[in-house]
Amino acid sequence: MDGLAPSPAEVTVVTVLTGAGVLAVLGLLGTLAVLHRRRRPAPSAAPAGAPSRPTRGLAFVTVVASVLLYFGGRLPFVDTHPGGGSATLVELHGMRAPVYWMAYLIGGGLLVVLVGTLLKSPATLGRVVGPPAALTAVLMLLLLVGLKARIDRLDTRLAERHLPGVAPTAEASDGSVGAYPQAGWVMGVLGVALLTLVLVLLFTRPHDLEVLVALTAGFTMLTAPTLIDDDFWALRGGTVQRVRYSVFDLGGPALVWPAVIVGLAALVAAIPFLPKWLRGVATFAAAAAVGWIALAVVAATHLLDTGMTRLLEADGYTVAVRRGGAAAFLYLVTPAILLPIVAVRAWSVSRRRAARP
Fold first, then answer.
1. Half-sphere exposure of 141 toward its Cβ, with a 13 Å CA cutoff?
2. For this UniProt entry, which segments traverse the membrane (predicted)?
3. What sign does the CA torsion over 21, 24, 28, 29 have?
4. Taking Cα atoms as reference points, which of 127, 122, 125, 128 lies closest to residue 51?
């Protein structure tokens, strides 16, 4: 794809970095395996609180993450306008060697194998497989963040090149100019994030519930200021600028969104610590996150056009197009899926803990 296909120099650099990353992971794995073998720990030498065999839930999350990674390398990865269309990670390279796709394939496969191996016996293999798996996850995240940075640079170039030629409109138009991550990139990010979450939960037991709840509440809070369609390329005085407004700029019914998000985050964070009679009520309310989020979005829908147009006009912008793409839906869809699952999990584990003598 024009603008994203790597140059010959980039092909060489990415190839070298991919090889170096694989060697680093395998070298670390081999070194830790030799050290572990020399220690020859007795079966009873596992430290108190060491991870036991994981629940089926972590195995299920690993399978889901593996499926997401598989489709992430095959579904449309980026979309460009005007004229570029969509492209998968392989098609992104044009006529060049598919080094980014190979790095994604090798890194994703290695991460799935390492996490799957660790799931079989976290207490025994934790010190051997855990660090290489964590390193692989970091490398995969760097790859996906690097690709997002390349897409954003192309997005900027396309906006600066074509936006001055767009006729002024009364309202902000949908993304007809720019480059945007699509479902493939989103699935890749979610797959790596879920596998990283499995690693974190394995190595924070027996406090994995508190860690899961804290991470979920924290990510949910990050979505409080933002809604879909709040990010624009806009033209003012012949200069192309990126403009973003928060729900606090919109005001009015849009403020239902941060109120709902903060409330849901607080509910999930409180479930493990609430008394029994109140825990069930909080779990039921948090499990209905999809409905609460839908209510907040509906309340703000009409402002996403009229309110944004008013703000753009007040700031002197004559042309504006929305920065589109699937990445924005991470902030909306992920809490809607994650909150009910974590709420029910927190309730279930808290109830079992309370029943212990």
1. 13
2. 12-36, 57-78, 98-119, 128-147, 183-204, 211-228, 254-274, 281-304, 324-347
3. positive
4. 122
CA–CA separation, 213 and 120 (whole Å): 24
Which of 295, 158, 325 lies closest to 228, judged by CA?
A: 325
Q: Nearest-CA neighbor of 247 among 217, 226, 271?
A: 226
Whole-angstrom Cα distance, residue 37 to residue 57? Answer: 30
62: Cα within 13 Å, side-chain hemisphere: 23
Q: Could you tell me which residues come within 8 angstroms of residue 281 by beta carbon, excluding any fewer than 6 positions away?
A: none
Please state the φ and ψ torsions of residue 298, each to the nearest 5 degrees: -60, -40
Report the distance separating Cα 92 and Cα 19, nearest Å: 21
Handedness of CA 334, 337, 339, 341 (dihedral sign): negative
pTM of the model: 0.88
- Mean pLDDT lowest for which of 65-69, 122-126, 327-331? 327-331
Task: Give the tens place of pLDDT for each residue, 163-213.
Answer: 888 878 767 666 678 888 998 999 999 999 999 999 999 888 888 888 999
| Rounded distance between C-alpha atoms, residue 266 and residue 135, angstroms | 32
